[in-house]
Fold:
Amino acid sequence: MLLRHTPEKLEEREALTIQPAKTCQPVGAMYAALGIHGCLPHSHGSQGCCAYHRSALTRHYREPVMAATSSFTEGASVFGGQANLLEAIQNIFTLYNPDVLSIHTTCLSETIGDDLPQIIAKAYDEGKVPDGKFILKTNTPSYVGSHVTGFSNMVKSIVDSFGKKGPKGKHINIIPGYVEPSDMAEVKHIAKSMGLDAVVFPDTDGVLNGPQTGHFEMYPRGGTTIDNLKRIGTARATIALGPLASGPAAKALDTSCGVPCELLNLPIGLSATDDFVSALRKLGGVVSDEIEYERGQLLDMLTDMQQYFHNRKVALIGDPDQLVSLTQFLTDIGFTVRHVITGTSGKKFIKRVTDAAGTEDMNVREGSDFFYLHQLILNEKVDLIIGNSYAKYMSRDLDIPHVRMGFPIYDRVGHQYFPTAGYRGAMRLVEKLLSALMDYQDKTVPEEKFDLVM
Ligand code: SF4
Structure:
């Protein structure tokens, strides 16, 4: 009902966000850390922050997310959290025995200025870190950036900790970007099918989409192993999928270990997946019959269905790397992308989107919010909204079909298990788009036009 009060008149806002289209940095840092096998994320701040980060991930993935916290109270907030973190490090290795402890900060510990490198060095000096165990650290102040920035920071900290220079091997690295566990599985499937030995990191496949076994596993079987992480510095090359989420880590590995990197858009849709496959081919991968078959199936599906997409107007809201690939795919298959909004700030975002769409005749905003998208749609209606679960309010109020994609999705399942990346993922995406449009048509079409076939 509150949405009825959204004014159509667009006004510039600088100091006010209404219904943010992002969440906070530690959520992304925690998600990236869970992609390492045997890793326990640790939130250096108050219990409330950690509870929020865990619950955001648990509600999206419907899996228990384990994480520890420095449990700041008033004392730590005033005098600093060093004592809390030192005690936490000792307790965590004694009680929970992770292979890796990944520590990220929060707004509070950043504001009081806790020095993570110094505190962690002290923990090593005092013998609180057992031999053979690792500590990752990253700064994730949430008054800047978003969950994507936090993810990116944590992936870079993986490189900083595990990237060691050495003679080059035959393997390659793939940084899959901030995507679902199912998408990481699809990236591995493509690389494997092309005969490449690829270290994919982080890798939440098998961590946040595992089977129901009846047994609680503190550290699920998935995730990039330490042995594989120790190989990233000796890889022949790195493919970074999603420049914002994966680019800084790939560039850091290039600088520190001389592993050349190629930055690509997320392989969502036909042409972006073609680019990914082509990059793998240049690194010695062979396009297998399996990959060719999957691509052919997607092409067949698109040929059959494109007339239903032609000139349909669509609004997108979500994370930058996803939105760029999505814009390109939707444009390729006939949609007219009208509004694209991300809550994450990034100067290059607008150009990346307009380049992907092949036009500047569209509304693109970075660092914006759901309220602004609502205003845009009030001014120019669309046939479809693609965004996370929060877009459902707008969808209901404006009577526009909604396809859920992005983070978080709290009211549907499947994103953990079924990819949107790769050729098979694009097929699922097309199915979802078409179902949303056809369901709406069946619901609203006049009786005399209601037909059994499309
Ligand atoms: S205080 Fe900062 S880190 Fe904690 S939940 Fe809020 S935005 Fe996130």
Summary: Residues 24, 26, 45, 49, 52, 106-107, 142 surround iron/sulfur cluster (CB under 6 Å). Residues 172-287 form a domain with the Rossmann fold fold (CATH 3.40.50.1980).
